[in-house]
Write a structure and sequence with these properties.
- This protein has one domain: FAD/NAD(P)-binding domain (3-Layer(bba) Sandwich).
- The protein contains twelve helices and 21 strands.
- The strands form four sheets. Strands 4, 6, 7, 8, 15, 16, 17, 18 and 19 form a nine-stranded mixed sheet that branches. Strands 10-2-1-14-21-20 form a six-stranded mixed sheet, with helices on one face.
- The protein is globular, with a radius of gyration of 21 Å.
């Protein structure tokens, strides 16, 4: 069969999984990143494999919440006033994507991308020797009362229509699953079929190791520019240039630096996500969502991870650790016996498009160039399906008569 020399730029969960899938299909693949695999955004996520996350970030009524985004430092979705002028074009698109028809379109596309995510991850984890990392215990969404649950009814109705109805639990049902939950939470929704990766960094490392063991190449360098040549592509890096037949850009929030000059000007922003991690035994046995704080609480191999909230503040501003401190306060209010636990803090950049639907496809007018960017907080959930889509596009392009003949065959 035909094989191509392909550079995949970005060694997070999305890029590493794409590189692994392309290598399995016989291509000569080089995975390029300035950091080690999994050390960026993928390191700090909450590990959720969430097929039911079909509701986009922008839902009907989001316009009314814009003042709080700008003025309330503790808003779950925060845009600091100093960054607001730069964020304005993205915010306009974000609010425009919250109409009922656009939300429906986004939900449909997200549902198609998420479908089968748990099964895909179980298969991938087995293949890379990391089955123990996938925890199949569902996700539990906690609410103070029925009125609070009713406020989320639009999102739950979307989930229900796409096959994820959830089970309503009362206080007794909550305690049967998670006995340490504070009495303030009296009702919950339980998504039984969901799963969690208990160490996202180790998972990406296992995928990268399996990629290399199959003959893939890792290159530690920063990709700085792309150039089309008569025979393929040249990737300029901080080390030697890389010459390939094709390029896949999966560089997360930094992807625009490579894609804008190629004519794909995506409205990409960084969702700056924070987490804190407590040492010792976790008070929960599955992913738990504190819906009143928009916070995920996850039992990790390394301790109890608490992540959440969205901050639109660009790639260069220093972290606002007050947002991490708010996570500490939220989880200590929800669970007992955490006051004395040491805490580690982290902030990372999640690539986000206004409608919450990632761009996965070929770059128009640039034969051999593909992009997989904008997954927001669902990069882990969607990495295997994204890899399959990109690999399928490469195969389809090779099958088209008149396409450029790759330099390598196998």
């Amino acid at each position: 069969m035909h094989a191509m020399q392909i550079a995949v730029i970005g060694a997070g969960i999305v890029g590493a999984t794409i590189a692994f899938e392309l290598r399995k299909r016989g291509h000569a693949v080089t995975l390029v990143d300035r950091d080690l695999p999994g050390c960026g955004c993928s390191f700090g996520n909450s590990g959720a494999i969430s097929e039911a996350s079909v509701a986009p970030l922008a839902m009907p009524g989001v316009l009314a919440s814009v003042p709080r985004m700008l003025l309330d430092r503790e808003s779950p979705l925060r845009v600091p006033l100093a960054y607001a002028p730069r964020a304005l074009p993205w915010l306009v698109r974000f609010v425009a994507s919250a109409t009922p028809s656009r939300v429906e379109t986004s939900a449909r596309e997200l549902a198609a991308l998420h479908a089968g995510a748990v099964a895909r991850h179980l298969a991938l984890a087995r293949e890379v020797g990391a089955s123990e990392l996938v925890l199949e215990r569902g996700h539990l969404y906690l609410y103070a009362d029925r009125a609070a649950l009713e406020k989320d009814s639009a999102a739950w109705e979307l989930r229900r229509r796409y096959g994820h109805a959830g089970e309503v639990l009362d206080r007794t049902g909550i305690l049967a699953l998670e006995p340490a939950v504070h009495s303030r939470y009296t009702v919950a929704m339980f998504l039984r079929g969901h799963a969690t990766v208990r160490n996202p960094l180790r998972y990406v490392e296992a995928i990268a190791k399996a990629f290399v063991s199959r003959g893939g190449t890792l290159r530690r360098a920063e990709a700085t520019a792309l150039a089309r040549t008569a025979s393929g592509w040249t990737v300029a890096t901080t080390e030697d240039p890389l010459r390939t037949d094709a390029v896949v850009v999966a560089a997360g929030a930094w992807s625009r630096r490579l894609l804008d000059p190629q004519g794909l000007a995506l409205p990409l922003e960084t969702q700056r996500g924070y987490h804190v991690e407590f040492d010792g035994a976790a008070p929960v046995s599955r992913s738990v969502v504190l819906t009143d704080r928009k916070v995920f609480v996850t039992p990790m191999e390394t301790g109890l991870r608490v992540g959440g909230t969205v901050e639109i503040a660009g790639l260069t501003a220093p972290p606002d650790w007050r947002r991490a401190d708010a996570l500490v306060a939220a989880v200590r209010a929800a669970f007992r016996d955490l006051d004395a636990s040491p805490v580690r803090r982290w902030m990372g950049h999640r690539p986000c498009l206004p409608a919450s639907v990632p761009y996965i496809g070929a770059v128009p007018g640039r034969s051999g160039l593909y992009a997989a960017v904008g997954h927001g907080h669902l990069g882990l959930t969607d990495a295997p399906a994204t890899a399959e889509r990109i690999a399928g596009l490469v195969a389809s392009d090779l099958a088209v008569p008149g396409k450029r003949v790759p330099r390598t065959t196998s």
